[in-house]
Amino acid sequence: MEMSMLQQVVPQQQDYTQSRAVALHNVESTITELSGIFTHLATMVAHQGELAIRIDDNMEESLSNVEGAHSALLRNLTRISSNRWLMIKIFAILIFFLMVFIFFVA
What letters, b where the CB count within 10 A reaches 16 and e where it falls short, cover 48-65? Predict the structure, then answer.
């Protein structure tokens, strides 16, 4: 009787050992898969960090360009305004000489 009990216990232990081995293998493959996922994630984060730095640099350069364009527009506006007064003065002088010519020559 003891022998038959012992024969029943041994296969149960072997089944238990095999199921534990399969479970450990599944855990190992899951850990390996997670390692690959985290490596891929780290690569993506590093790539996104580089893109964020480039975007920040481009924004600073764009801000500098906008400020330079604003200054250039203000300078041109000042020149146009001063040129407008110059043209008005020249036009007034021409009208004055035209009137003097008409009154004294005609």
Answer: eeeeeeeeeeeeeeeeee
Task: Round to whole Å and give the CA distance between 4 and 57.
Answer: 80
Q: Where are the domains of the chain?
A: 50-105
Digit-coded pLDDT (tens) for 71-98: 999 998 888 777 777 888 889 999 999 9
pTM as predicted: 0.44
